[in-house]
Amino acid sequence: xxxxxxxxxxQTQSTRLGKKWLRKFIIFLVVSIGFGFYGLxxxxxxxxxxxxxxxxxxxxxxxxxxxxxxxxxxxxxxxxGEMPQNYLDALHDRExxxxxxxxxxxxxxxxxxxxxxxxxxxxxxxxxxxxxxARVAADLEGNPRETLSELTxxxxxxxxxxxxxxxxxxxxxxxxxxxxxxxxxLAIHMLRVxxxxxxxxxxELRLGLPGGHSIVPSDVAxxxxxxxxxxxxxxxxxxxxxxxxxxxxxxxLYQYSPLEDWCVEMHKHARPEDFEDEAQDEADEQSDxxxxxxxxxxxxxxxGSPESEPRA
Length: 312
Known about the structure:
- By secondary structure, the chain is of the alpha+beta class.
- The chain has helices spanning 19-70, 84-93, 95-102, 107-127, 133-139, 144-155, 168-195, 259-270, 276-304; strands at residues 13-14, 16-17, 199-201, 206-208, 214-215, 220-224, 232-237, 248-252, 256-257.
- It folds into two domains: 19-169, no CATH class; 196-274, Roll (PH-domain like).
- The relative contact order is 0.12.
């Protein structure tokens, strides 16, 4: 056991957050919050803006089809007293029929193409949650011929926008909720981890646990390294311990530094035989490395020596 009065031996040491764990955790936190902001921008701003452009272009196509069908002479909006969504659903119910009619010629085919164009326009409004009577009336307000002319001029120099899918905006809101929710959970978890502290008294090899209890090597009945690859150490405490008797303590070596060194030191002090094979393996590796180094040096020396002069 270490001498507490020896120079350089600290009476009490405390853990700090592991650098690798903290770095990885902060990366996850930043990515999650960034994901949330990404969704928060797309859901209420970017996607509705794109949807508005698509709705404008679909209105242009509808007015063109209506002009071709009846010269914009018939009412273009939704019949009075009918709900926009119900009207759109009725168009979808007739969709196959309208497609078949639109393949032909004559007035019926032109009317079918106008109805299909109207359906597409109303769909584009629905994807940005603007399918209501006031919005439909506002888009068709005024002289339809002038509206057609204005839209034609506007879209002459623009490319057709990519239409939204029905799930685009809801998915962006889902990204927002998941991103911020995960970020908040990560932040809370990090604070909880940071609040816990382990202490170490090297003179007694005493490990202080969060909550005020402490143990020394003689208190541990079993040192379990079954999940050593996952940076976990399990201490099975002897029944004689006043507060922790019979319990198993799980120690996360990745989150706290230098907790691993302390645990290994306690284990080696209590059960040095558990490390005999490891010590032998380490000695064998060092011996093999030294032998390889000697062989390499001998080979280099041999290759560097001057060759014998051939006899006459």
